[in-house]
Amino acid sequence: MFRPQTDLAIEVGAIIEDKQENETTLEGVSMQVDEQKTFKKTHIEIINKHGEEIMGKPIGKYITIESQSLKENNPEAHKKIIQEVADIIKSLLPEVDEKLKVLVIGLGNRQATPDTLGPYVTDKVFVTRHLMEFVPAEIEKNVANLSSLAPGVMGLTGIETSEIVKGTVEHIKPHCIIAIDALGARSASRINTTIQITNTGISPGAGIGNKRKQLNESTIGCPVIAIGVPTVVDAATLVNDTMDYLIESMLSETQDATFYQMLKDLGDKEKYSLIKKTITPTIGNLFVTPKDIDEVIMYLGNVISNAINIAVHPSITIDDINKYAY
User: Which of the chain's termini has less CB crowding within 10 Å, N or C?
Assistant: First the structure.
């Protein structure tokens, strides 16, 4: 089945369900939706190989938080989302008998604004690894051993991100990695309004169609929780959606709609391929992001970094998130 480019499991599931007749569930995939006043949470779990094949994603859990307030300056709404994301991260963290050691990896390019989410989060998390030997026992039990790293991108470093991360993991031996990255979405409405948390790892650069070697437990050697936000959308997808709206409008307003009906009857793959082939020579492999992306990255980065702080450090609560100067 044709799938327009997206990193979100929720979009893949919706596309497949739209193509199924008389079915409301996907074999090998479970889905639960929780509508809250501030946000919508969708929990997708790919259970077996069949689910893996139809979704095109690894077996595991994919939890999505959707809220228009994520791209707005809305502290009250953000506070509720921070707590929810923190609870999700806690549920995915490994259970260990010793002090939890976590490595936060901020994937992305600091020189490209839509791709700065990961590095921004690494600057905001409460790093403690370098302090553990100096912290009094009364405080030491209330904080985790957390370190952070923004490895940059291969175009600037000449080194695969997976190589940098694997070398760091071999040295500090964390129990878990939390990786943050910008993603790509199929729908423009999900840009900067969706957070996806998964325990299956991540492919750096996936959001702009430049996938590098995956970061997951099999490649890195420890569990990887991936947190991503779609900050860009493929231009061909935007044109494709606009074309769909235009066709529907023409069908309702034109007496002789033969031509528009022919366009509507084109398969998704054929239509998308035609658009891609038509616009690529003119505009190239273009990805689009909102004009206020720099401000929105700050909102998203604060939500995710504070959620990580609350999830990882036992003593930090939602009421403590602004006590630390950044």
Answer: C
